Amino acid sequence: DKRYKFLFIKCYIFMFLFVILIGCLIQLINDCKGIETLEIESFNFAEEFLRDGRVFVNSSDLELPNDSGFEQIIAIRFSNIFIPKTINIINATIQFKTRSIAKKKNGNLSLIIRGELTANPTDFSSKIYQNISQRNITDSYSIWSPEKWETENESNEKQRTNNLGDIIQEIISLTEWFSGKDIVFLIERDESDSSLNTRIAGSGKDFGSPVLTIVYENVTCVDVSGIVDRFSQTCESWSTRNCAEYGKLIGMSDSEMVDVLTACPVSCRVCKINETIVEPESIETSSDILFPHWQSITANLWREESKTSGISAINTNNIALGSRNYSDVLTAISFSSVKIPKTANISNSFIQFISDDENSQGNIILKITLETSRTIESLSNDNNNEELLYNLEKRNKTNNFILWDIGDWDFSGQKSSSQKTPDLSGIFNELISYDSWSDKNSDIVIFFERFSINDSGNNSRIAKCNILEEKGSTFDFRPILYFEYFSSAETRIVEAYASEYLEQSIETGESWSTSGDLELMNDSGDEQLVGIRFNNLDIPKFSIIKTATIQFTSKEIDN
Question: Other CB atoms closer than 10 Å to residue 454's CB: what's the count?
Fold first, then answer.
């Protein structure tokens, strides 16, 4: 019957639209909550034989947890975890990919997963026995009993761990942990499992590295219930969003934490005292409020200068740190548009490199300094004539310096704590203390050279420094400079000229973007909407806007 067929189609369409509507509502609710997802691939692993403590680093597969009859503990490092410190983790899993099938050992298996309880996990090393098993572990753990892995290169629910959120939450709650740190997971057989069964996962870019996925609610809810008499009564809770994102409150006392939150926008400043809402004006605030900020900047120029001849090589596809071809070099890397207020206190800074050589090993200590001149000569200038030889050597540098005792770089494409410099905040705080420093899009140059007092060898480290276009995708391997800093409250005036205009007729919808004037809001009897765009407003996220105006200039009088 055609009627029933038509009714069936209508019902099918209604159900389809209903499912879409429910999905949109769920997404809307998640957006309102600030639900965010972070995915990070790991390229740094270690396996330790429990029998004798031998450690193997970055093999092409991971036996979970038995390799040819030898029980082992596996460590997996995920680098540069950029999540706010004050988040609520909803779910966190590691996704593996089957490398091969352990045919005779593919039975029931129970694994226990923990985290390394530190904000600064040390490098994995094959030179130090029991380098993995002797690490401090979290109280939180997860028992994972993966199903049989029966298909090579499979990566789905079978190869996905249980929720590891509690483990991560315990690590990021450490006082010294802040956004951008590494997290290490440790996996071994649970004591309840007496079998020798195992699962073989891929590792490395060619075989499917483990991927950590963190789903979290970006809601800042700082509990200050322990503060008594702060406002003559106990403040039960501060509960609003986005007042202290990226974990900038680490290392601050509870009272300082409250001071920062009271500096947040008015919508975030609600203190709940005995179910009574206290208006922001009645809250005592500190006169020395600190505002947290993060910046990340990609290198734009780099140059190596021979210590022997003074001749330079500019913007090659990789960077030599220490020496190239057994000849010492002074390496300079430039970063543009650095905006750090002169009043700032830089609490942490580092550069993340990516290795470009499988044999970057051996002892090496580098000295790191900054150029102090504010009229920085471009690194792209040709200096290969005799008058400009040793151009980098002659530049003024900071009095302070940082020493970097670099660990081994084990394979090309490695991006871990081994490729991350120590904290550079000391030399940056010296730089911004100079009278010549300006936060108006300043360029900075960072120098790397062998620290000859303690290092007399010819070892080096080679880092990637190029942009690769492959199969329609772009891969940027240039070094990235990260900053965390706090700046004092200050009154600033920000001016920006309009960059784009649009007039649109309310009646017809027709629009014009090249008009020589703006009729507010009627053009020859036609009512219209006017849109004005202002670009590049340099306003910190935590600012409190006191006043904002648009200044027009009259063109003609319409009687």
Answer: 12
> Which residues have C-beta within 8 Å of that of residue 22, sequence separation ≥ 6?
none
Residue 51 near residue 70, CB atoms below 8 Å? yes
The DSSP line for 297-312 is EE--EEEEEETTT--E
What is the spatial distance between Cα 540 and Cα 298, in angstroms, rounded to a whole number? Answer: 20
Residue 1's contacts (CB-CB under 8 Å, 6 or more residues apart) are none
CA distances from 257 to 28, 62, 295 (A): 31, 43, 21
| 289/245 Cα distance (integer angstroms) | 16
- Residue 257 structure tokens: 């934490």
Q: Report which residue type is found at 324.
A: R
pLDDT (tens digit per residue) in 195-246: 999 999 998 767 788 999 999 876 443 333 333 233 322 233 333 323 333 2
CA distance 220 to 268: 10
| DSSP 8-state assignment for residue 387 | G
Q: Which two tokens stand for residue 266?
A: 């008015």
Find the radius of gyration of the CA atoms of the chain: 29
Closest C-alpha to 73, from 90, 87, 94, 52: 52
Cα dihedral 121, 446, 368, 171, rounded to 10, equals: -10
Three-state DSSP at 416 gives coil
Cis peptide before 521 (omega within 30 of 0): yes
Q: Say how far apart CA 238 and CA 260 lie, in whole Å.
A: 12
Identify the bridge partners of residue 91 per DSSP, sorted by sequence position: 215
Torsion over CA of 93, 95, 100 and 106, rounded to 10 degrees?
Answer: 30
Residue with tokens 């090993």, as numbered in its chain: 361
Q: How does pLDDT run across 295-322, given as a tens digit for each residue?
A: 788 999 999 999 988 888 887 889 999 8
Q: DSSP assignment, residue 279?
A: P
Structure token pair of residue 53: 């403590």
Closest CA to 311 of 339, 291, 330: 330
| DSSP-assigned states of every residue in 346-370 | EEEEEEE--B--TTB-S--EEEEEE
Please give the model's pTM, rounded to 2 decimal places: 0.47
Q: How far apart are CA 400 and CA 403, in angstroms?
A: 10
Q: Is the separation of the CB atoms in 401 and 424 below 8 Å?
A: no
Residue at token pair 């070892």: 459
Q: Are 348 and 386 in contact (CB under 8 A)?
A: no
Cβ–Cβ < 8 Å for 265, 541 = no
Please, what sign has the CA dihedral across residues 370, 374, 380, 384?
A: negative
